[in-house]
Design goal:
Layout: H1 16-29, E1 42-44, H2 45-60, H3 68-79, H4 86-90, E2 93-95, H5 96-100, H6 111-131, H7 141-148, E3 155-160, E4 168-175, E5 181-185, H8 191-196, H9 199-205, E6 211-212, E7 216-217, H10 218-222
Parallel strand pairs: 3-6
Antiparallel strand pairs: 1-2, 3-4, 4-5, 6-7
Length: 229
């Protein structure tokens, strides 16, 4: 006999997401000399970060992994805690239930379902943008507002949608004549949307977008991603 990688048998495609979560958790956190099928119910958040990073880089096939600020956002999301510091999260344990059983507050999906949607979208449509570090991605709407509110009119960044699975949205700042700022979010683009017209061309189309945060002219940042008409 020989130990194999984890195997999950499913009877319908809608079970695929849960199966992937089971395989990922088992593969990352089970001990070699365990009793069969016994896996830790809770694991250190730091180990979870390493696992999510390895999974992201392998699926997307990129050398650009997740950054410290990405882990901080993901921790806020999975623990539903916006008051803790980065260091506080490092000493916590995350449970299987938080990873793929409990529905995220105000949403209809789990943390893993959301993260897997991001993986799929990035792999299919955004690999080159992510690898060029043009997508901030893992950042909260509230923090985006804080970043952009002091920036010039037309400054924008790209983040993964909080409200939809597998969506990327563009947040940009508008300044009124009185100097007041307002941050707008464009409705998220799905993989289907981006297969019809690429992200680069959509950004080129939108005249209100001028500079990628912090201060890179959009044609300079995305020019190599434009398709010739």
């Amino acid at each position: 006999q020989v130990l194999s990688l984890p195997i999950v048998v499913i009877v319908h495609g809608n079970q695929d997401n849960n199966a992937k979560a089971t395989v990922l958790w088992d593969n990352a956190f089970s001990e070699i000399d365990r009793v069969p099928f016994i896996v830790a119910e809770r694991v250190p958040w730091e180990k979870m970060c390493d696992t999510l990073n390895l999974k992201f880089m392998a699926e997307v096939q990129t050398t650009k992994g997740l950054l410290k600020e990405h882990y901080f956002f993901l921790a806020q999301k999975i623990f539903n805690d916006h008051s803790a510091s980065f260091e506080d999260f490092q000493s916590r344990n995350v449970s299987w239930a938080q990873f793929n059983k409990e529905i995220l507050p105000g949403r209809g999906f789990t943390f893993w379902q959301w993260f897997d949607g991001v993986l799929d979208l990035t792999k299919r449509c955004l690999k080159s943008y992510w690898s060029d570090r043009l997508i901030t991605g893992f950042i909260s709407k509230q923090y985006v507002c804080k970043l952009l509110s002091t920036e010039p009119d037309g400054t924008f960044l790209l983040r993964f949608s909080d409200s939809e699975i597998g969506g990327v949205t563009i947040a940009y700042v508008i300044r009124g004549t009185d100097g007041s700022s307002q941050v707008e979010n464009i409705q998220p683009f799905s993989a289907k949307d981006l297969s019809i017209r690429s992200l680069g061309d959509r950004i080129r189309d939108l005249g209100q977008l001028r500079n990628l945060y912090p201060n890179i002219p959009k044609d300079q940042a995305f020019g190599s991603h434009y398709n010739s008409e």
